[in-house]
Amino acid sequence: MKKEFVVIGLGRFGGSICRELTRLGMDVLAIDKNEDLVTEYSNIVTHAVVADSVDESVLKSLGIRNFDHVIVAIGDDIQASILTTLILKELGVKRVTSKALNEYHEKVLRKIGADQIVHPERDMGKRLAHNLVSSNVLDYLELSDEHSLVEIAANSKIDGHSIIDLDVRARYGVNIVAIKREANVIVSPQATEVIRKGDILIVIGANADINRFEVKML
Ligand code: ADP
């Protein structure tokens, strides 16, 4: 189903969201106060508008309420990011995702009702660190301060072993919740499932346990 998005702020982060959403066939309204950027994006997205997002009347006149999802990708101007998020929630936008620069910024965004808060630099740094420690770690999603979900590529060390053989739950306290094998996904694999080299294991658990599994197992 085609969804309608608004991206406010066309820096590197917002710009990249615009391009990818468009590539995925979505309708995108791009907003920035910088005219040059808006001109650049007018050839890429469905609509591009020069506007200052802290001006409530402008957002209203753009019919912002009718969009499915608004992404506040304002970079350094924390005040503008907070005020924009606040106005969007006051206008009744259902889903607002805002970019936070630091923990204080995140706290305020949460308080004023942002539905999703992203920290691209911090999160990418964490992901990269896991991938640097173990090149088998393909992706890493923090579920809470203590728990994560990671994608780990199975290498030759565990090729041909079943989940029960490896005894991951008892030895490491983590669970393999799914296995991606070529085009298939085996959800909730049986303990007897044999892992093959090249499988991607989706593992859930406490961070400390996952780290032990990452470092020792592979
Ligand atoms: P990034 O780190 O993603 O490159 P930037 O700070 O370079 O972030 O980009 C943020 C963008 O947000 C800039 O293009 C800036 O013009 C835009 N922006 C900042 N404040 C507002 C605002 N109040 N209304 C509209 N656009 C804004």
Automatic annotation (TrEMBL):
Domain RCK C-terminal: residue ranges: 135-218
- Molecular functions (GO terms): monoatomic cation transmembrane transporter activity
Domain named RCK N-terminal: residues: 2-118
Name one process (GO BP) from the record: potassium ion transport
Q: Which domain of life is it from?
A: Bacteria
For this entry, the protein name equals: TrkA family potassium uptake protein
